[in-house]
Hints:
The structure holds 2 protein chains of 2 kinds.
Chain A: H1 2-17, H2 19-39, E1 47-53, H3 58-69, E2 73-78, H4 82-90, E3 96-100, H5 104-110, E4 117-120, H6 125-150, H7 153-173, H8 175-206, H9 208-213, H10 219-249, H11 257-281, H12 285-303, H13 314-319, H14 324-338, H15 346-366
Parallel strand pairs in A: 1-2, 1-3
Antiparallel strand pairs in A: 3-4
Chain B: E1 4-13, E2 16-26, E3 31-35, H1 42-49, E4 57-62, E5 65-66, H2 71-77, E6 78-81, H3 93-103, H4 112-122, H5 135-147, E7 153-157, H6 165-180, E8 184-189, H7 192-195, E9 200-205, E10 208-213, H8 215-220, E11 225-230, H9 234-240, E12 248-253, E13 256-261, H10 265-278, E14 287-288, H11 293-304
Amino acid sequence: MRVILMLIKKEFLQVFRSPLLLSILIVAPMVQFILFPFTADYEIKVLDIAFIDNDNSTLSHNLINEFSASKHFRSKGIIDSKSYADKLMKADKIDFLVEIPLDFEKHLICQDGTTIAITANAINTVKAGIGCGYVQTVIGDYLKEISENTGLTTLSNTAQLFTTNIYWYNEQMNYRNLIVPGILVILVTLIGAYVTALNLVREKEIGTIEQINVTPIKKWQFLLGKMIPFWILGMAEFILGLILMKIIFGINVQGSIPALLCITAIYLLVMLGLGFFISAVSENQLQAMFIVFFLFIVFVLLSGLFTPTEGMPEWAEKINYLNPMSFYMEVIKKMVLKGCQWADLKYQTIVLSVMAVILNSAAMLSYKDSSK
Amino acid sequence: MSEIDIQHINKRFGKVEALKDINLTVEAGEVFGLVGPDGAGKSTLFNILTTLLLPDSGSATILGMDIINDYLQIRRSIGYLPGVFSLYPDLSVQENLDFFAAMYKSSIRDNMNIIKPIWDQLLPFKDRPAGKLSGGMKQKLALCCALIHKPSLLFLDEPTTGVDPVSRREFWDILKDIQHKGVTVVVSTPYMDEATRCDRIALIQNGNIIEINTPNNIIANFKGHLCTMPTSDIFGLMKIMDRFELKCNYYPYGEHFHIVFYDDIKKALPAFEQFLEKNGRVHGEISSIQPNIEDCFIELIQMKL
């Protein structure tokens, strides 16, 4: 016991004596929290829009006014021809063109259907896609408004058709709520795998491991003495992340916090085991860094933080069963945003526990205390 | 019973035979020196004896315990100072000592009597990070860490390599003091002058032990007759020496040229002077000297070839 306590004390002494590591531990999460959600924000602030009004009726004028009133659009006015619109778009003066057809008002009243052409500058596909959604939403809102005022039922049906877009729109508005918990996951992963792997390999590099190996301490004591301090650091980092999330973005954890901490503790064990395993197979910090970096990128891309996992081919989804980060990402999203409880996350908890046991056993076996 | 008993140990790294059939014993209370050039196999032998490395074949006992089966008990009773400084550079002197003491479930105070002379020298620097100590001080700290659990056997792998001459002398005085406190010391060194401070030495070359004896006996067993002469033309001399017909051995020794004659010196010396004159070599005075351990080592290697 005294041996392990001393190992832990030594580890903390070293962490607090290393200004670089300490600042990484404290500054990195802050920078990530402050910078990341804004850079990864898919919400489009203002779109420039122009109109061709072939109908020139009250309803078409009202529709154009509706766009001017929206905070997402800046109206560049009504123009005469498509060729002029083309010129404007090439000059990056407008992002969207809305073309209202002849007899727009008449068709609406008669309820026999009409087509509004939306032209988008698709150089930036994300902007075009999201902008189209916005345009449709504005039109949908407008049609709904008319139907409410006039009692035309088919129009409200049309508006119904747009409700999916409205939902989509809202999700984009809340994009930050998705990315911020994702940053929590990245933080915990980095502490768990990166810092641990580098720390252990450093002992190899400077030869201290040899001095430790000639002492009678046992393998498990040494690894436990490494694991506990980094586990504590990881948990502290996670709690710091939760506090920052609350302060900066006002996101509260919807689910049970004790359950969240428990699963995080298990996930950290997975990452610590991974870090140890990597340090056991690499000879210097550079090798360890490359391995962790490679795995990290794969984990992040597969985890569904930036791209939805549903869009992946089936084989990629199968690989994801080996990706601890994707399980944990699910836990975090469900806990923080959806308000799930222990019972809802039993499966993820079990999978992560199994991974923790396997990786730590692998680390124990591959770590040599001599050439025996 | 011997403190260390090594029987037929072999170790090979790929194609390199690092140790070839090593046999030696170390008795309680002696300072035993392992002397040889870099790459001779000293560190490999140390790693095997300190249970960090397994031999390919052969066996060894340390304090009566088998290096393979009883390695944990062995680790409890030996101290090891590795060839490279391997303490935590970011921990202070005191913290390093406390840490390693705890690894042996011991403490600085428990073993003060054995480490006191070194501890007194380290005391002014006890709060300094180990990485910021001078080379000599680093070695003293490392020695202190190796002694912190009062081992009965101490292994020192090239403890004085890269240490200034004054600190080296101090270090050897400390080793003698440790020996007097009842610790058996096994030390490796590439410096021949340090070999004479050991009770017994083993000369090791290319994984072979060439000779095991006391330094005095090794010097007494020197076969030839050693002469030295100052010269500024060592290269020129080396080139012509194979034309000298008498049996001899020669090598540069600093600014001197050492030549060992194996024939009657009364005939050999005039013959050599004549030979130098004939080849038009300017030379200083040739004088007979007592061989030192280095001359013996060179002779032993030559005889082995």
